[in-house]
Amino acid sequence: MTATITNVSGLQVLDSRGRPTVCALITLSDQSVHKVTVPSGASTGRHEALELRDTNSQRAEKFYSGKSVSLAVSHINELIAPTMIGLVPDVATIDQIMIQLDPTPRHEKLGANATLAVSLATLKAGAHSHRQSIARYLQPTGKLQLPMPMVNILSGGAHANGALDIQDVLVIPHGATSFSQALSWVVAIRESAAKRGAEQGFTTNLVADEGGLGIPFASSAKACEFVAQCIESVGLTAGHEVSIALDIAATQFFNDGQYVSRNSGKTFTSEQWSQQLLELLDQAPIISIEDPFAEDDWAAWKSFMTQLPRSIAVVGDDLFTTNAARLAQGIQEKSANSILIKPNQNGLVSSTFDVLSRAKMSNFATIVSARSGESEDTWLADIATGWSAGQIKVGSTHGSERTAKWNRLLELEHSDETVFTNPF
Ligand code: PGA
Ligand code: ZN
């Protein structure tokens, strides 16, 4: 007999930055308990689903600077839980119930942190009911495709007190023939970066929110040159076996219609900023560039796409915010060719999957992504695999909240039901 839901509850726990976040627990009639903690961003896009915090409300807890989430937790306990008791754990059904409870597009009434926690816990409970891993439950037959990792080496922007204008310099080990080999290459590059950075007089024992090194290079070009050297220093060929990916997170330094570079002390119009980026693409072995322009600077994105010197992934994160309507506009205007998929930007598992499917149908590359505030959960690795996303972005190789996801991918690889292919 299929197990049914006997209890649903929420509680406030801490994320990897020590900030409150929402955890949901679902108990089934077979006594099993399924728990999920939702992630949270720092460079949050304006069009993301609403992360409900107790800011300015009676509930705000003194020591959490208005960031407590007791209101979102109460929505799980008081509004969502009663509607789920006795049902089988089916994500599509539960997501529909939550949409009926709160039809606002950004989940403003219940809070997307509440809805996503319940949605993911339902997915986990559903997989358990079918005696499958989440990855296998999402793709019942055939070999599972492990994602290519995109891994943070240097951090700047909102993740490292503005050490660099741009938020992340990452690497993609696309020449590797297995996931474990890909990870071993990246670990070596990350170690080389720490060692070489220290030799150049920088502090490298402190890490940013996502485990990257917060080295304050004078320019993005210098940061890219450094990472390319680190790739070569471990005996790999930059541009052939391992390439650079950038997350510019340009919304963070877009002010009054201008891009304000703290590194250079200069201000750029969209067209000038585009030229800066095109020069950078000329100089360094970059194959992927995320959020090169601000979240609503649509014209700049479109124009940039027509000027690319070679095949480069142009990734929309803050631009799309895992939102179907924004993706539709991007497909129509040819604003990008890749999308970051962050479940908590969307608020539900099923509609996150709809966005990913729609992107794939339009030949967009898809990258399932963690946030700067994470938990020890590993569902992200299963989702990236079960949905055949092609790529995954989890931060660096430091911090248990990051390694938990890498280790889960190693475990999936070990199961022998997987393949690893280069999406580039
Ligand atoms: P965030 O950043 O999780 O802090 O929003 C991640 C990203 O921009 O990709
Ligand atoms: Zn981003």
What about the largest sheet?
A: 8 strands, mixed, barrel
Structural class: alpha/beta
> What is the overall shape?
globular
Q: Which CATH architecture of the largest domain would you pick?
A: Alpha-Beta Barrel
Radius of gyration: 21 Å
CATH topology of the largest domain: TIM Barrel
Total strands: 16
Number of domains: 2
Q: Element order, helices and strands?
A: EEEHHHHEEEHHEEEEHEHEHEHHEHEHE
Spell out the CATH superfamily of the largest domain: Enolase-like C-terminal domain
Biggest sheet: strand arrangement: 5-6-7-11-12-13-14-15
Q: Provide the β-strand percentage band.
A: 15-25%
* Terminal CA distance: 45 Å
Low-confidence stretches: none
Oligomer: single chain
Q: Write out the distinct hetero groups bound to the structure.
A: 2-phosphoglycolic acid, zinc ion
Helicity level: 25-40%
Write the layout of secondary structure elements.
Elements lengths: L4 E10 L5 E9 L4 E5 L32 H15 L6 H11 L10 H18 L4 H5 L5 E3 L1 E8 L12 E5 L6 H21 L20 H14 L9 E5 L6 E2 L2 E4 L4 E3 L1 H14 L2 E5 L7 H8 L7 E4 L7 H10 L4 E4 L1 H4 L2 H13 L3 E5 L9 H8 L3 E6 L4 H15 L3 E3 L4
The site of 2-phosphoglycolic acid (PGA) has 11 residues, from loops.
List the keywords.
424 residues; Enolase-like, domain 1; TIM Barrel; eight-stranded mixed β-barrel; 16 strands; binds 2-phosphoglycolic acid; binds zinc ion
How would you characterize the overall build of this protein?
With 424 residues, the chain is α/β, with parallel strands linked by helices. It folds into two domains: 5-131, Enolase-like, domain 1; 144-420, Alpha-Beta Barrel (TIM Barrel), CATH 3.20.20.120. It is 37% helix and 19% strand. It has 13 helices and 16 strands. The protein has helices spanning 70-84, 91-101, 112-129, 134-138, 179-199, 220-233, 270-283, 298-305, 324-333, 343-346, 349-361, 379-386, 400-414; strands at residues 5-14, 20-28, 33-37, 144-146, 148-155, 168-172, 243-247, 254-255, 258-261, 266-268, 286-290, 313-316, 338-341, 365-369, 390-395, 418-420. The strands form four sheets. The chain has an eight-stranded mixed barrel with strand order 5-6-7-11-12-13-14-15, surrounded by five helices. Strand 12, helix 9 and strand 13 (338-341) form a beta-alpha-beta unit. Helix 9 packs parallel to helix 11. The longest helix has 21 residues, at 179-199. The termini are far apart. The mean pLDDT is 96. Bound molecules: 2-phosphoglycolic acid and zinc ion. 2-phosphoglycolic acid (PGA) binds at residues 41-44, 167, 247, 249, 317, 369, 371-372.
